[in-house]
C-alpha cells in the first residue's frame, strides 16, 4: 500500500513492485505472492465489493497496479496541495484563509511519513520532500500569523523552528520580524547576527538580500516593517469583504542601498562598448561578457553600467555566484535576481507560485524545465528593458548556466541584456560549453587589462590622498601591472609609509595571490616556487635541469601557471610572472633555509645549461652561500663583478 501511495496514483509495474518489495531478490513465485497481497489489500479497501466486479480503488492497469483515488482522499497527497494553496493565498494577501489551509495541512501530520517504510529506497525521496514541505508549512503559518498581527503568538513556534533549522534564512527573517514587531529589537538584531555568523562559518556566504535588507531596516526602524493594515474576516458574514490588503511580499521589498561607489578611473572605452551592447539588446535578448583577473575591476565597471542604464530608464538587477557551493541552493544567482525584481514588480500570483523555488527559501524542488519556463514568463512581463548582471559566472553551478541558456532562447524577442562577469583563468568546462552555445546571442566580449600609467597615478592620488610623483606612479604600474585592486592596496600603504611603499608588497594582495596559487595542483605550485627563485623571468631549460626535476612535471606545472594567468610566455622556452607581486609573494613565502638550498640547486642547473651566464651564476651563488660553499660563491661573484664592470653595469 505504501508503495502505491508513493507512486502518487501512477501505475507501479509488477516488475517494479517485485523489485522493491524483495529488494532485488525475489523468491521463485514472486508474482503469485504479489497477486495475493493485492487481493488481500482489495478486500480491506473495498470490503463490500461483490465477487468478480472490477476493483475501483486498487485497480489493475497494464503493466501493473495503481491507486485510483482523488488527491484529497490520501493525506500524503493532500498535504502538498494544501501547503501550495497556503502559499498562493499568502501571495494574494489572504492571510486568514492561508492560515486555515496551513493549519489543516499540519493537522494531517500524524507521524513520520511512510512510517516503517521511510528508509526504503523508493520512499526516501518522497519522505524528504514531505518533511521539507513541513518546514515550509511552519513558515507559512508564521507568515500568515504575522500578517494578521499575531506576532507575539508566532514567536515560540518560530524559535523552536529556527533552533531546528538555523540556516533557513526565511525562518530567521520571520523570527526577527516578529521580535521587532513585538518591541524586541535587541532580540531581532541578535537573531540576524547569529545567522550571519553561522552562514559565514558553515557555508562561507553572506546572508541573502532579504536578511541584509531587514537588518538595515530594523536599524533604521523603517516604517515598511510595521504590519500592513489587517483585513479581518467579517464576523457575521453580513458586511461585504473589504478590499484586500497589499500582499505581503515574497521577500521583503526593501534592500539596503549599497554604499556610494567610489569614482571609477578610466574604462570609458569599455563602458561605451557595453552601452552599445545594451542598445542592441533593445531588439531582444543579448549577452555581454566581461572578463578579467581578480581585482581587475569587473564589478566596478558592471556597477557603472547599472548606474548608466538605470538613468536611461532601464531596470537593473544583480545576482552573484557564491564563493562556496556547499549548502548553497542551486541557481542562487538567479534567486537573487528574481527576488530583487519581485520586490518591486511582484509576479502575478500564479507565476509567483511557480517561481517559489527561486523566490523563497523553501526550496521545494521543481523540474528545471518548468522552473525555467516560469522565469521566462515572468521576465517577459517586466515592462522596462532589463539589465541582469550575473557576477562571477566562472563559479556558476550547472543550474545557473542552464537557466541562462534556456532564457536566451525563450526571451529572444524581449529587451534583456545579461552581463556576465568572469575570471577567464578560472573558467570550468561548463562555462566554456555555455559560451559556445550562446555565441549567437553574444553582443560584446570585453576583457579588462591593467590601467594605464596616468590612470594608475590618478587612482593612487584618489585612494592615498597624497601627492604621487611620476616615478612612483611608474614603479607601481610596473609592479602591479595596473591591476586596480593591487594599485588600491598599494595606495593604502603609500598613505601611511610614503613613497617607499611603492616597493612594498601590500598584505591584501599577498593573500589574494596565495589563494590563486593554492588552487593549482601541488606539483605546479612547486614548479612556480622554483621559477620564483629564478626571478621574474625563467628559462624552461634551467627549470628542467634542476637536480631532481622531472621534465613532464615541470612543463605541466608551467602550463598550469600560464592557464591560471599567474605566468606569461613571452617567447617559447621562457616564462615570466604576470606581476612582480606574484613572484615576490611566492619567493617570500619560501622559508629562508629552504630558499638558500633552492638557490644552490638553481646554481647547479645553471652551471650545467648556462655556464656563460655569469650574472645569474653570481647572484645564485651568493644567495645560496653557506660557510661550506662560500669559497666557490666568492669565485662566481668575483667573475660576475668583473663582467658587470666591463659592461659599466657595476650596480648589478
Ligand atoms: N576603474 C576603476 N577605478 C577606480 N577603482 C577601481 C577601478 N576598477 C577597480 N577599482 C577598485 O579595485 C578594487 C577591485 O575592483 P573590483 O571589485 O571591481 O574587481 P573585480 O574584477 O570585480 O574582482 P573580483 O574578480 O575579485 O570580483 C575595488 O576596490 C575597486 O574599487
Ligand atoms: Mg567582482
Tell me what you see in this structure.
The protein is of the alpha/beta class and 652 residues long. It has 5 domains: 2-69, Winged helix-like DNA-binding domain superfamily/Winged helix DNA-binding domain (Arc Repressor Mutant, subunit A, Orthogonal Bundle), CATH 1.10.10; 149-228, Serine Threonine Protein Phosphatase 5, Tetratricopeptide repeat (Alpha Horseshoe), CATH 1.25.40; 268-447, 3-Layer(aba) Sandwich (Rossmann fold), CATH 3.40.50.300; 454-504, no CATH class; 533-646, no CATH class. The protein is built from 28 helices and 11 strands. Strands 5-6-7-4-8 form a 5-stranded parallel sheet. It is globular. It binds adenosine-5'-triphosphate and magnesium ion (MG). The site of adenosine-5'-triphosphate has 19 residues, from helix 12 and helix 20.
Topology:
Blueprint: H1 2-6, E1 12-13, H2 14-21, H3 30-45, E2 58-61, E3 64-67, H4 75-91, H5 95-107, H6 124-147, H7 151-164, H8 169-181, H9 185-202, H10 209-220, H11 268-281, E4 286-291, H12 298-311, E5 315-320, H13 332-344, H14 349-359, H15 368-380, E6 386-391, H16 398-410, E7 416-422, H17 429-437, E8 442-447, H18 453-464, H19 470-480, H20 484-497, H21 507-518, H22 522-534, E9 537-539, H23 540-545, H24 551-563, E10 567-571, E11 574-577, H25 580-588, H26 592-609, H27 614-623, H28 630-646
Parallel strand pairs: 4-7, 4-8, 5-6, 6-7
Antiparallel strand pairs: 1-3, 2-3, 9-11, 10-11
Helix pairs in contact: 4-5, 4-6, 4-14, 5-6, 6-7, 6-8, 7-8, 8-9, 8-10, 9-10, 11-12, 14-15, 15-16, 16-17, 18-19, 18-20, 21-25, 22-24, 22-25, 26-27, 27-28
The structure holds adenosine-5'-triphosphate and magnesium ion.
